[in-house]
Design brief:
Structural class: alpha/beta
Number of helices: 20
CATH architecture of the largest domain: 3-Layer(aba) Sandwich
Shape: flat
Distance between the termini: 79 Å
Strand order of the largest sheet: 1-3-4-5-2-6
CATH superfamily of the largest domain: P-loop containing nucleotide triphosphate hydrolases
Helix content: 40-55%
Largest sheet: 6 strands, parallel
Radius of gyration: 31 Å
Strand content: 5-15%
Order of helices and strands: EHHHHEHEHEHEHHEHEHHEHHHHHHHH
CATH class of the largest domain: Alpha Beta
Length: 433
């Protein structure tokens, strides 16, 4: 095994002694790796190519604490190739080119491959990512990139097309419980110095929100609090309690990125829950966004769109309520505007639904785009011009019963076309009956 800066064997032991629990407990082999069975389970592509040391360029994509860097370290420990790392934080194009030049010389002189690991690759600029392209395409390096952002949006398309995208999911509570239990007994971890009930381990798993790093950090902080208590059980172990876990991690970790996939996925779930008339789900997703620090004005703007697109004239008041919610977000702000956003969310969820207005304007726009220009019927034209006395007679609706009179308003080509087709729901249904 030949490795570069990713491992420094001379100092790794010293670093391990002071490293956080989450670092000390990184899995060393695929057999120690917990979770992600669809990716590293028996007979999966990744397990087979790691075993055969035949890796091609890959991009690991997923939330923090799901095992991206751990998989890179497992590859580093198992490959016969030279393993190098370039920092995506603070690294320059010159640094990258230096590594690529060394890889090319290594291949030409020694015939030895180089695996290049770049953590948080989305932080590289476009020029830095472009500098990688030739080396990846010609197999001068095998790229392993790790990112919490969707590579289809944040990594250059040519790099994406030359790499295999492997998406990691949040770990389940059961996976996290295995990670915590292992750390309690492993010599690299807490080495059986502490005891924890199933209730305590479950609490840590629940609070971690699918992030193994958060779970291990919480366990480590709880053990430090336990040391201060100076109490032991009959078997000489120091007990960890729910109170210690609560002090170490006072609130559940819920992943949310205001500019990434969670941002779009959660707002999508919020809109679809209101459209589906489920106020409980809608309020939950609202809470997820507010908890994650989402701009309440962004939420309220989407509510205004939904009020017209999905409710429309089935309840015309919905748009007014959504607009009031936006004004509250703009003028009052958090935390008080959360109450108004909640009220508006529930109202929009329970309101009768109609997308007739949305469909009407799209149908009319399609008619405008696809048809030739059609003249305004003469009786509708402006009368303040010479020759207007030759126009057809205009019937003034207020001169007729109920201020309504049958009259052609559409161009001749569309005179029998209905763009607006009201539903039978809410106010819209009453007007159409």
């Amino acid at each position: 095994m030949k490795q570069g800066s990713f491992f420094d064997s001379a100092s790794s032991e010293a670093r391990a002694q002071v490293a956080p629990l989450a670092v000390r407990m990184r899995p060393r082999t695929l057999d120690e790796f917990v979770g992600q069975e669809a990716i590293v389970g028996e007979e999966t592509w990744l397990r087979r190519v790691i075993a055969a040391d035949a890796l091609s360029s890959i991009l690991f994509f997923g939330p923090a604490g799901t095992g991206k860097t751990s998989l890179a370290r497992i590859i580093a420990a198992s490959t016969e190739a030279y393993f190098d790392e370039v920092s995506a934080i603070g690294g320059t194009v010159a640094d990258l080119r230096k590594s690529l030049e060394a890889a090319q010389n290594r291949l030409a002189i020694e015939g030895n491959r180089t695996i290049l690991f770049i953590d948080e690759i989305h932080r590289f600029s476009k020029s830095q990512q472009d500098a990688l392209l030739h080396a990846v395409e010609d197999r001068i390096v095998v790229l392993i990139g790790a990112t919490t952002e969707n590579p289809y949006f944040e990594v250059n398309s040519p790099l994406v097309s030359r790499s295999r995208i492997i998406e990691l999911d949040l770990l389940s509570d059961e996976d996290i419980k295995v990670v915590v239990s292992n750390a309690l007994v492993d010599e690299r971890g807490l080495a059986e110095r502490y005891s924890a009930t199933d209730e305590v381990i479950t609490a840590i798993a629940h609070m971690a929100g699918g992030d193994a790093r958060v779970a291990l950090t919480t366990l480590e902080l709880a053990s430090q609090l336990a040391d201060l208590q100076e109490t032991e059980t009959d078997d000489g172990l120091i007990p960890l309690t729910l109170e210690m876990v609560g002090d170490a991690m006072p609130s559940k970790q819920i992943p949310y990125d205001k500019g990434g996939d969670y941002h779009y996925d959660v707002i999508s779930a919020f809109i679809k829950s209101m459209r589906g008339s489920d106020p409980d789900a809608a309020v939950y997703w609202l809470a997820r966004m507010l908890h994650g620090g989402e701009d309440p004005k962004f939420i309220a703007r989407r509510m205004m769109i939904l009020a017209s697109e999905d409710i429309g004239n089935a309840d015309p008041r919905a748009l007014l309520i959504a607009e009031a919610a936006f004004r509250s977000a703009e003028i009052i702000g958090m935390p008080e505007c959360r109450i108004i956003l909640s009220q508006a969310t529930i109202y929009l969820s329970l309101a009768p639904k109609s997308n007739a207005s949305y469909k009407a304007i799209d149908a009319a726009l399609e008619a405008v785009r696809s048809g030739s220009e059609h003249s305004v019927p003469s009786h509708l034209r402006d009368r303040n011009r010479p020759g207007s006395d030759q126009y057809g007679p205009y019937k003034y609706p207020h001169n007729y019963c109920d201020a309504y009179v049958t009259q052609q308003y559409l161009p001749e080509a569309y005179k029998d076309r209905a763009f607006y087709e009201p539903t039978e729901r809410g106010w819209e249904g009453k007007q159409s009956s």
